[in-house]
Structure formats: structure tokens, C-alpha cells
Amino acid sequence: MTDVKELEKKAKEIRRSILEMVAKAGSGHPGGSLSATDIVTTLYFNEMNLDPKNPGWEDRDRFVLSKGHAAPVLYAALAEKEYFPKDELQTLRRLDSHLQGHPDMKKTSGVDMTTGSLGQGISAAVGMALAGKLDQKDYRVFTMLGDGEIEEGQVWEAAMSAVHYNLDNLIGFVDYNQVQLVGKTKDVMDVHPVVEKFEAFGWYVIEIDGHNISEILDALEEANKVEGQPIMIVANTVKGKGVSFMEGTAAWHGKAPDAEQLKEALGELA
Amino acid sequence: MSEKIATRDAYGEALLELGKENENIVVFDADVGSSTRVKNFAAEFPERFFQMGIAEQNMVGTAAGMATAGKVPFVSTFAVFGSSRVADQIRNSIAYPNLNVKIAVTHAGITVGEDGATHQAIEDIGIMRSIPNMTVIVPGDAVEAKAVVEAAVDYDGPVYMRFTRGGVPVVFDEEDYEFKWGKVMPIKEGSDLTIFATGVMVGEALDAANRLAEEGIDVEVVNVHTIKPIDVEGVVASAKKTGAVVTAEEHNIYGGLGSAVAEALGENYPVPMKRVGIKDTFGRSGGPEELMDYFEISAKHIISAVKEVLDKK
């Protein structure tokens, strides 16, 4: 029996870590990290089969953060999982740090794929899932896309190939927070309708509230039963979720809070 | 003239043979497998062959994901689609994480022929050479091509290999050919000038050298199969011996072998030199040999370049 309250508590911890590390770094992407937090938390603390003491374990489940700029949420989860000491989060983006501005699999323990150039992570996830099928392994591959990211053509190339190869060991998420760097996704380049697009490509699509842990858990349970096709969980989310002044605004896509703003934000997440 | 074999044929054969020995080799195709010659591997090992459709960016990224799981992916397509079209995917998903993906491209350079400029990669070596962690190899004939594929499998890391569509004279003897990773290969001794040549131009350079010998000009011919990392020591050693250099490649004079040799010599041992290559222009339709003449990279143009440099020596 999953303790939803525990996961919610963990998500709050991770949100606090995101804000603290981005504030300390003086740059980074809080908005898209906070919108993805509840999903990433549920994956790392309830769903994925991992061994932090053996990060390269070949039977582990994989997670590819295709929207690589949300690195802070991934780093916070990995630190909570004890892949590396939590105090190292404070070194984010520093020259002497293993925590790069975007995920680097060769520098950070627990990062399964180097990402950052949008649209590429999902292809790597397809490759990992194909390798799992080829080797008859049971591991699953999870990937998370931004809604702005799916404007990249490569995403749809990957979407076609995942269906062509019947990759039911591939579970994707679209962090549908409706805001990208310069403004609302519908104004920049409308990606709507996302559910129907993935369905048309042949994916098994589940639509949820990406901040409702129970819905995330139910979606994963449903996804795990699907056979013969990849699964896309379209998660309706709020950019900057959890910090009132960051919510729903493009201004906090790639900006660090100052000391005063950090204090206020952490106050809301107490 | 010796027997001609397209290096893509040698690639296809080598891949099939290596596939029998190494179960980790997987091959990706973007709807050109009959032309790139990976169809033989596909027929023998269908479970390790992945048709990705006309979607090269995803093919490159998928190969990267496969490499993270311990596979040795070969990404096969035409040189234009396996370099400039996917430069960012190669850069960020393969080279930056230093994943063990082999990018094996065919139909490189203007000798693609009739398909014309859109299908004639003349900048791929330059693009690949400027990406960190990437090794760039251009075999000079079918014998060398086979050896290159084998060496690439033994090497852990990204490799860009460039093969031809058309027949290339076989210049090496299969019995005693030895591929030395990252080393230039002197194939004809000489004292007046060194021709550094790569790919299809190795045969042209030998032809030029033989014709120059009839005029009493004694040139050294050095095969440069590995353009990155360039063998600085080997390049400088030959330049010290002859004091003059011509480079020959089926690629833009910017960014390829000529640039690599000029960089090595410029920093270590400057000598008079000239680059024979495509003079910063796009290709066009025509027969391969006609195009070599049209773009002034055939043996007779190497001979003119040699004489021009010798005048400055």
C-alpha cells in the first residue's frame, strides 16, 4: 500500500531543494522543475526499480529527462535517493561541481542519459527500451518531455519508432504546464491537442493531473498493464507549482529567486 | 589500373563478418540499407538490425540509447544525412557522453556522381573533426575499409567512418595490410615533396606520383586514413624529410585533411604547401570521373599542385 502522504512530503522536500540549489547557483530553471516534481518524486520513491549503490546495474529501470533543463528536480531526487550527498546540491552549476546545468551521465551518479538539447532524450529512451527487448530484460524506461519540447520534430520521429517496435517497456510523460521560455505554449507554437496527437501515432495515452500523486500512481499501474504499445501519460501541470508567485508564468522558466524570494517561496513550502 | 571496389561494399562485408563474432553489434538503417550495404547484415541478423525509416535524428539518438545498454551500434546512412543533418544529435547524444556508437556513412564526396550537390557531402569531415571525442577515419580502399571497421569495433568510443559509393582502386595487399590506429601510413618513399592523401585520393595520389617519377620528380605518398586525431608526429616527420607538402582529399579544402595537415605543420614545421580539394563550392551532377576533373581534384591536378609547390620550395 503506497503512502500518498509520504510521497507528498517527499515532493515538498524536493521542491525546497530545487529552490535552494537554483537560488544558490544564481541561475537555472525552477518553473519546469517544479511542474515535474510530483511525477519525478513518484517515479524515484515508489515506482522505479533502482539500486543507488550500483548506479550502472544493468537490470535497473531507466529515467531519461528529455526536458534536460529541469535538471534540478532530477538532482534533488537523486540526492534524496543517496546517489550522492545532499549538500552537493549546493554546488549546482559551479566549475568544480559534478552537477552540470543540464544532466550529464558521465559526471553525475544516477543520471541515465545526457540531455539538454530538446527532442533528443526520447530517442535515447527508445534505444534503451529496444535494447531491453533485444536482451529480453524486464526493465522499463521512463522519460519526461516538456510540452514546449514536443515542438521538436525529432520527438515525432521517436514517437513513430516506439510504436513501430511495440515498446510497451517505454513509459513517457508530457509535463503539460502550458508555458515555455518566451510565453504560453499556445501562443509560441500551439501543441494542442497533445493526447490526440500521441494517440494518432499509436501510443496508449493516459491523461492525468500531474500534481495529484494518486492519479500518477493509478496511471503508472494502468501503464504497467499495457502490452504491445508505448505509453504516454499526458500530465496537466502548473509551471512553478508550489510557489504562488512562480505559478503559471514564463518569467520563472529560467530565472533564480533572490534571497528574499527564496525565503518567501520556502515559507509557502514549509 | 588495378581492380576497383567501392569501399561501401567492403564495409558491408566487414560488418557481416564482425556481426558473427560480436553479438553486441547492432545496425541502424534509415531506408538506404541496400545502398549502404548493411542489407547483408540485416538478412543474417534480423533481430539485431533496426530499420528506423527516413528519420535520421531519431536513429542517431536511438543508437545512443542502445550504447548506454552495452551495445555497439552502427548507424548507417549517406554521408550528408549522417553528418550535417544530425550534427546536433551526434554532438549531444553521442560525442558529449562519449558513447560507443559508430557512424558509418557511404556515398561521401562528389564521386556520388549523378545525384548532385544535395547528396554530395563535402563538409562532413570538417563538421565531425570539430566535435570533441570524435574520431574521423576515411579508408583509402576496400582492404583498408575492412580493417577500419574491425578497428572501430575494438575501440571504445564514437567513430565517424566515411565510405564511397563508387569503385576505388585496390592499392593495399590484403595479406600484409596492417591498420595502425591514428598513424599515417607512408606508401611510397620520396624525397622532393610529400603528398598526404585520404580516401579515394590515395589512388589518385599514387597515380600522380608515378607520372611525376617519369619526369624525374620524386614524391612521397602518405596515406592519412585517420584525420582525427591527426598524427602530428607522422605528418611532421615526412614534411621534414621532403620540405614540401600537397594534400589531396575529396572534401572541401576547409575543415578536412588539408586543414588538419596545415594545422599540424603550422604549429610545428611550416613548409610550402597546397591543398587539393573542393574549393569551397557545392558539387553538381555528372559522372564521378568527370566531376573529379571538373572540380580539379584528379591526378593531373595533384601533379599541377606538386609543381606549383616545388617552385616555392
Assign the CATH topology of the largest domain in chain B.
Rossmann fold
Q: CATH H-level name of the largest domain in chain B... which superfamily? A: Thiamin diphosphate (ThDP)-binding fold, Pyr/PP domains
Task: Please write the CATH class name of the largest domain in chain B.
Answer: Alpha Beta
- The 3D shape of chain A can be described as globular
Name of the top-level CATH class of chain A: Alpha Beta
Percent in helix of chain B: 25-40%
Radius of gyration of chain A over alpha carbons? 17 Å
Organism (chain A): Selenihalanaerobacter shriftii
Keywords (chain A): Metal-binding, Thiamine pyrophosphate, Transferase
Pfam families (chain A): Transketolase_N (PF00456)
Family (chain A): Belongs to the transketolase family.
Describe this entry's structure for a reader.
The complex is a heterodimer of chains A (about 270) and B (about 325). By secondary structure, chain A is α/β, with parallel strands linked by helices. Chain A has one domain: Thiamin diphosphate (ThDP)-binding fold, Pyr/PP domains (Rossmann fold). Chain A has nine helices and seven strands; from the N terminus they run H-H-E-H-H-E-H-E-E-E-H-H-E-H-E-H. Chain A has a five-stranded parallel β-sheet, sandwiched between helices. Chain A is globular. Chain A starts with a helix and ends with a helix. With about 325 residues, chain B is of the alpha/beta class. Chain B has two domains: about 5-170, Rossmann fold; about 185-310, Rossmann fold (3-Layer(aba) Sandwich), CATH 3.40.50. Helices cover about 40% and strands about 20% of the residues of chain B. In chain B, strands 3-2-4-5-7-6-12 form a seven-stranded mixed β-sheet, with helices on both faces. The longest helix of chain B has 15 residues, at about 5-20. Chain B starts with a strand and ends with a helix. The interface of A and B includes residues 122 and 124 of A.
